[in-house]
Amino acid sequence: MGWKSLLLPLLMAAVVPNVWAQTATPAPQSEVSQNQPADTEEIPLTTIRAQVQEVNVIFTATDRRGHYRKDLKSTDLAVLDDGKPPVHVNSFVSETDLPLRVGLVMDVSGSITARMAFEQESAVKFFNQILRPHTDKAFVLAFDSVQRMPQDFTDDPAKLAAGVRSLTPGGGTALYDAIATAATKKLQAVKSDRPVRRVIILISDGEDNQSRVTRAEAIEAARRGEVTVYAISTNDSNVKTRGDKLLEQLADETGGRAFFPNKVEDVMHAFNTIQDELRSQYAVSYKPADFDADGHYRSILIMARSDKNVVIRARKGYFAPVR
User: Fold this and answer.
1) Of 143, 155, 163, 238, whose CB count within 10 A is highest?
2) What is the pTM of this model?
3) Are residues 146 and 262 in the same domain?
4) Looking at the DSSP assignment, which residues form a beta bridge with residue 102?
5) Mean pLDDT over all residues of the chain?
6) Is 229 in the same domain as 299?
7) Distant-in-sequence contacts of 113-119, Cβ < 8 A, 24+ apart
8) pLDDT (tens digit per residue) in 150-182
9) Same domain, 67 and 106
10) Over the Cα atoms of the chain, what is R_g?
11) DSSP characters over 127-153
12) Is residue 314 domain-shared with residue 293, that is, in the same domain?
């Protein structure tokens, strides 16, 4: 089989597009109090260049039991972009070292105080373990009825730890506003000369009672920002709530995962699982067929060709740029 024959299936293996050149989502209306200046060293990177028409997709492959599959080849997978195979695949590799841009979005409303201290320390340990100096960066965004940013983008775990530990419980919950802010004003605004992975780690019960942004608008902001959402529920009632279902929807739409810790010790396990996944992913870049810079949403479907034991998790699509 020729190398061109291999490229097509390989392309069929990617589903978490890191599209280069997208339409900017209008900034959410909420104001964010920042203790640190915005990161000016980087320029936004979430875009799919209209002329180049290159889509970059990051995806995770596991077996049915959740164990990571790191042995897949391009010929094992199939990908459809807007229902059609790509015209050309530029690369297909196991990428465990792409730079990370992580936003810890933490609910500090009055409803989630029970496990807050343990969640804060789990987040601190996560930053200490995952961030690589001069490569990865993260910020901390807290919200109740308003948003606060105790720490902007940095690669210094000590600064992030100080920001996390400074948080105290507040009042109402404007969850959708916080997601839109993190996705649009922070992660979508990141620019780089190479693909990066944009990630939100959301710690919340999933309930919202004060946002100006709707649920649909928050999800669209995450899609446009090419953000993967990992959600850790603070609900400890052992009963699935409406908020838990929202967390699942956010994760599913963006190629992430939702975790529902029953015990405080399970919170650290959720962070460890996220860390393992971020270092166990594949990346593919390709040129989509019949591409038009018209701003419409293009679906992405990735599947195993023959091995029914393989589960692929990635973004469900992306927005084409506008000419």
Assistant:
1) 143
2) 0.81
3) yes
4) 138, 199
5) 84
6) no
7) 113/169, 114/234, 114/236, 115/234, 115/236, 115/264, 115/267, 116/167, 116/169, 118/264, 118/267, 118/268, 119/203, 119/232, 119/234, 119/267
8) 999 999 999 999 999 999 988 889 999 999 999
9) no
10) 19
11) HHHH--TTT-EEEEEEESSSEEEEEEE
12) yes
